[in-house]
Structure formats: structure tokens, C-alpha cells
Amino acid sequence: MIDISHGPHGETVKVNAFWLRDHCKCRKCYNPKISRRIFSFLELPKDMKVKDLQYSPEGEKVKVTWSDDHISKYDIEFILSSQFQNFKMKHSVDTSPIFWNVASILQNRSCLNVKLGDLCTSDTVAKDVVTSLIRYGLAFIQEVPPNLTSTEMAIRRLFPLMKTFQGEMFTFPDVFLQDEVTKVKAFVEPHTDGSYYSDPMGLQAIHCIEQSGERGDIFFTDGFHIARELRQRNPKAFDILSRVHVPTQLVVKDEHHSFSAPTIRVDPITKKINEIRLNMYDRSLFNTLPQCEMQDFYESMRELLTMANHSENRWQLPLEPGTMVIFDNWRLLHGRCAYSGNRTLARGYVQRTDFLSKARIMNILE
């Protein structure tokens, strides 16, 4: 360990020698244009030692000469801010998502809507949409012509499209196999999509481009909100749903996707809720838990689903041609009321990594 001095009173922080050398950003070690290291870890001497330490007159920088005569220069503030305790403190509190129920989301509804014309011509409006997705998990784009091309244009204004076995953009008319639950006219309970993928779609966009007969409202539940409520109300149930892997699968012609993961994913360091993966329709053989523990799991799942369906948490609204909704599929549960007549939905997905990348480029996230 190396003692690095800082502050006016000669305080010190202990830093691992390999960590310090690993974070050298000289031209031999780091390419700032692409923010990547350019050395092999195995090139570092196994018996890494400091040969000399020199501080700048102001005490804000330190120059390290290593035992192999390599020279590294560091800002003291970088070393201090990069320590684990600072990371944990900074990231242990959710500051970006604004958890909501129906009452609170209705109070902020005006923040969720933009017009397609404004989105296409203003980078500020584009940032507003991504900000809404980060904060509330959804955004609405108004005045979108009811066709697949315009819907695709609206999505591509912000993100590249994710390609699945359904393609990049696709429609859901009523004429489908009757054994696919989301493609018939019955009620569909709150769920997330793509639970059978190892990396489910990060965002989903839906636009009703044709509607006749009695409408089938869409509804959303903030999965992060109900998971947080469950954690406070019933810690045992929260622990079970964040620990037990639930197997899911999709088997169609030329496709067989299968994956198992907990319903609630928690960051192991910060303990923040990172993902809700909940689809009771896509479950496959549940053999990842001893039978003696099954009852606790089912009771925990029942409590979460009851919360998801409660009227105070389930925001219900019509799907109308001209209004496209885009929402966070890792956070929000969505479902649909039963309907009659004919309806066609235009749909597209965005990968999680592309969504978060755009938020960082816009300085919404670090």
C-alpha cells in the first residue's frame, strides 16, 4: 500500500500500488481519444514498488516514479474521489429515477409529452424526452402520423433500433395465432417484455396506428416503486424475489430463447434496484428452487403482483393513433385491458446500452 498525502493537515489515504499504476494516464498507458488503456496488465511488474514520490508545490498533484522507472502523474483529487467509500456513498441513493404511483405521475404528466415536430427540430426537446425516460421511465410523443414509417422515424431521432426475430420495426394486427397471449384481445396483466433474453430490450415504443371498436387501454406500473415498497413492507418477500431465479423461454419457429434470472435485480454494491424482470406468461419449468421453498416464493410473487395491479399504482390510459409511448422495459410493467374490434400496433425496441449511452452523451447520467 502507498500513503498519499492530501489536505492542509497532512492527512493520508492508503492506495494499492497496482491500482495506482493501473490508472496511469500517460501516453504509453492510455489513449484519451477513446478513453481506453493501451497496455497489457501482464506487462506490469509483479513486484510493483514506488521508487520516488514528488508532490507539486500546491499539493494538488503527485508524480510517481516506479521501480521499473516508469513515471506516472496524478491529480490528488482523482485519487481521493475514486475510492470505494466515495463510490458507495455517491451511488447508494437513487437520485435520477423519480418513483411514482398514479397520483404523483398525474401531477407530472405535462413533463412527459412532446410533439414530433418539436422533437425533430430541437435538441433540447430530444434531451427532454431522454430525461423523462430516466426520471419517470416513459415519455409520450404526440402528433405522430399513424403509420410504421413515422413511428420508426420518431424512435430513430433518439436511438438506434434493436433487432429481434421480429425485425427492427413490426406491427401487431389482430390476425395471429390464438396461443400467443399478447396477440389476442383479452386482458393482459402487468409484465415486462423479453424475459427469455439474456439482455432484454431496454426501451419499448408502442404506437396504435389503427383502431376500431371498443378501445383496450394500456396501463403502466412503476416496477421500481412497488419493489421499493415491497422491500419496506416485507423484506423477506423482497429477498426471495431478488434471489430466486425464475426460468423463462420463448419457442417459435426457428427460435428458442431461454433464460433464468431473479424478478428483482439489485446492485450488489449500492443495493439499488436495477431491473424488474417479470412475465408470468413466459415462465418455463420452475425447477430452480427446492419444493420446500416454493410456497414462500409464490406468496412473495402474489404480494408483488397484487401491488402491481392495485389502482393506486396502475396508471391506465387510452392508446390512440397519433400518440406514441416509449417506456423503460427494465423498470415499468405494462399491460392492456380487453378490447373489441380491430387494432394494429406499431412497435420497436431499443437496447438498454444504447439508451444509457444517449443519456450519458446528453449529460443526464454520468
TrEMBL record:
Residues 10-77 form the Gamma-butyrobetaine hydroxylase-like N-terminal domain. The keyword tRNA processing does not apply. Keywords: Carnitine biosynthesis, Dioxygenase, Iron, Metal-binding, Oxidoreductase. Pfam families: GBBH-like_N, TauD. One of its GO terms (biological process) is carnitine biosynthetic process. Transmembrane segments: none annotated. Residues 113-349 form the TauD/TfdA-like domain. Pathway: Amine and polyamine biosynthesis; carnitine biosynthesis. Its EC number is 1.14.11.8. One of its GO terms (molecular function) is metal ion binding. It catalyses: N(6),N(6),N(6)-trimethyl-L-lysine + 2-oxoglutarate + O2 = (3S)-3-hydroxy-N(6),N(6),N(6)-trimethyl-L-lysine + succinate + CO2. One of its GO terms (cellular component) is mitochondrion. Its cofactor is L-ascorbate; Fe(2+). Converts trimethyllysine (TML) into hydroxytrimethyllysine (HTML). Belongs to the gamma-BBH/TMLD family. This is trimethyllysine dioxygenase. It comes from Stomoxys calcitrans (Stable fly). The gene is 106086193.
